[in-house]
TrEMBL record:
Record Pfam families: Fn3-like (PF14310), Glyco_hydro_3_C (PF01915)
Keywords recorded for this protein, A-Z: Hydrolase
Domain Fibronectin type III-like, residue spans: 266-327
PANTHER family the record matches: BETA-GLUCOSIDASE
Protein name: Periplasmic beta-glucosidase
Single GO biological process annotation from the record: carbohydrate metabolic process
Organism: gut metagenome
SMART domains: Fn3_like
Family designation: Belongs to the glycosyl hydrolase 3 family.
Record's keyword annotation contains S-adenosyl-L-methionine: no
Coiled-coil stretches noted in the UniProt entry, renumbered to this chain: none
A GO term, aspect molecular function: hydrolase activity, hydrolyzing O-glycosyl compounds
Keyword GTP-binding: no
Length: 327
């Protein structure tokens, strides 16, 4: 790779989050700075802001498109901006306490920017620098690589450059689900059985359905989702026994194998569902997780413990109770 385009309203600014001390680049490393420092003189970096987070002005998109055309790959940094505690910023905040949006789509002309850069035919990576999830159906459908960085602190630019260039293998999982649109809210992963429609017939304009006539209630990315530069296989999943008493602890074991070519970390997650119960319970609930580091082709047996008391709960009495059934 000889050249790279670094584009977007969050490419050359710091985002420390709400109630922080500064919005000044002198107090942190921006993505543009981090990438330039990592590649040095070996790779040409073409930068263009493209658009603002808080404006519908598209006049800067042409410059961003030209930067992409002159590069081997384009990285587009979009998302939100949160107010610093000292409240000095050239642009208004779009995320944070007391900062609400009527639409959960990317603000301003950010979607237009992504579409225009994608139309160049160059490989595109979208990086979300934000304090909350956004509805990004076009990004999910058309962009082959998406990275959620959130607000990563003073060294955000250094860390994102390390991940983008393979020095660090990403291993995070989404802490919430991403909705398809504002109309798809809420998108709890642990919803009740009837929360996503009765008929279970998702639709489209080619094949209208019920519940949502022209859509599916599914999220873009569900809680707990996250990819890596390597791949993992879950093998021989088992529990220590089939029947448990109220004060028992469930022991879950799984053989985890790194089947890729790069060392990496995987988060093993255990979800529980009460198949038939006297009170309505969620379709699944996360009850245990752990992160495991593996070398290429390495296999390890991973153990997780779940006290029975954490999977039985009566909503009326607000107390844990024992229930007979299948989980």
């Amino acid at each position: 790779m000889r050249s790279i385009a670094v584009i977007g309203p969050n490419a050359d600014c710091v985002q420390f989050g709400d109630y922080t001390w500064s919005k000044s680049k002198k107090d942190g490393v921006t993505p543009l700075q981090g990438i330039r420092k990592l590649v040095g003189k070996q790779v040409k970096v073409n930068y263009a802001k493209g658009c603002s987070i808080a404006s519908l002005d598209t006049s800067g998109i042409d410059e961003a498109v030209e930067a992409a055309r002159q590069s081997d790959v384009a990285i587009v940094f979009v998302g939100s901006s949160s107010a610093a505690f000292v409240r000095h910023s050239a642009e208004p905040s779009t995320s944070g306490e007391g900062i609400d949006l009527n639409d959960i789509a990317l603000t301003g002309a950010q979607n237009d920017l992504i579409r225009a850069v994608q139309a160049t035919g160059k490989p595109v990576v979208v990086v979300l620098v934000a304090g909350k999830p956004f509805a990004m159906p076009y990004v999910k459908e058309e962009i082959p690589a998406v990275l959620a960085q959130w607000y990563a602190g003073e060294q955000a630019g250094t860390s994102i450059a390390d991940i983008l260039f393979g020095r660090v293998n990403p291993s995070g999982k989404t802490p919430f689900s991403f909705p398809q649109s504002t109309g798809h809210l809420p998108v709890y992963y642990n919803h009740l059985t009837t929360d996503k429609g009765y008929y279970k017939e998702p639709g489209s304009y080619d094949n209208p359905g019920r519940d949502y006539v022209f859509s599916s209630p599914a999220p873009l990315w569900v809680f707990g989702h996250g990819l890596s530069y390597t791949t993992f296989d879950f093998e021989k999943v088992s529990a220590d026994k089939q029947h448990y008493h109220p004060f028992d602890t469930i022991q879950v074991a799984v053989q985890l194998k790194n089947t890729g070519r790069m060392a990496g970390k995987e988060v093993v997650q255990v979800y529980v569902r009460d198949m038939v119960s006297s009170v309505m319970t969620p379709v699944k609930q996360l009850k245990a997780f752990t992160k495991v580091a593996l070398r290429p082709e390495e296999t390890r047996e991973v153990h997780l413990s779940i006290p029975v008391s954490v999977i039985v709960f009566d909503r009326q009495s607000r107390q844990a109770i024992s229930r007979t059934g299948h989980f």
